[in-house]
Amino acid sequence: MSWKKGDREERGYHHGNLREALIKAARDLIKEKGPAGFTFADAARSAGVSPAAPYRHFRDRDALLADVAREGFQRFEAMLATGWAGGKPDLITAFHNIGRAYLAFARAEPAYYTAMFESGVSPDLNAELRAASDRSFAVLRSAADQLVTLLPAGKRPPALMMSLHIWSMSHGIASLFGRGDGGRRSLPMTAEELLESEVLIYLQGLGFPQSA
User: Are residues 122 and 200 in the same domain?
Assistant: First the structure.
């Protein structure tokens, strides 16, 4: 029976979608070894394909990491949007819930989180990654746009500034204390409690009511 090289490669990746198999392999390797701890060939081996097979979809390892990050941002956007819930039950509570969703994502999806924020892959590597990143931030920006309407017109802080401040708080606490991997530091309280108190102090300092 004839068995050419091409036949062997077909057998190797027809167990499923090659692109998705490689993304999953990269996620597993990121979780196990970190974003810099594996090669393009390692990802191919983990996916059960030949070293040449990944080039059918990805230019190099960075392109693979960028696709992992893009997929992560899509999931991230969905979790933030669920936390915001269109501003329900009230704008202040919903704003706090975005922070909780941020922490929940970092804890539940450490490999995606690492690919998105700690792999060294620039969001500008490709247009799809940049768009996915921008859409996730837009959830927070839209929430801030609505939240500032609780204050008198002459006393409203810039919504973009607020978005960046809250993003920085959420990201710092998620990275230090709210992760689902070995990068998490211990706390005498939950990460959610720390973030809630920090956001509460921040909002009160700007003159927001404690509740709607």
Answer: yes
Report the alpha-carbon distance of residue 101 to residue 76 in Å, rounded. Answer: 9
Determine the Cα–Cα distance for residues 9 and 148; give it in Å rounded to an integer. 57
Q: Look at residue 211 and tell me if it is in a domain.
A: no
Give 60-86 pLDDT, tens digit per residue.
Answer: 999 999 999 999 999 999 999 999 999
- Single pTM value for the model: 0.87
Q: Is 183 in a helix, a strand, or coil?
A: coil
| SS3 of residue 166 by DSSP | helix
How many Å from the N-terminal Cα to the C-terminal Cα in the chain?
A: 75
Query: Which CATH number belongs to the domain containing residue 23 in this structure?
Result: 1.10.10
Q: What tokens appear for 144 in the block? A: 């801030």
Secondary structure (H, E, C), 15-44: CCCHHHHHHHHHHHHHHHHCCCCCCHHHHH
155 shares a domain with 201: yes
Which domain does 159 fall in, by range?
60-205
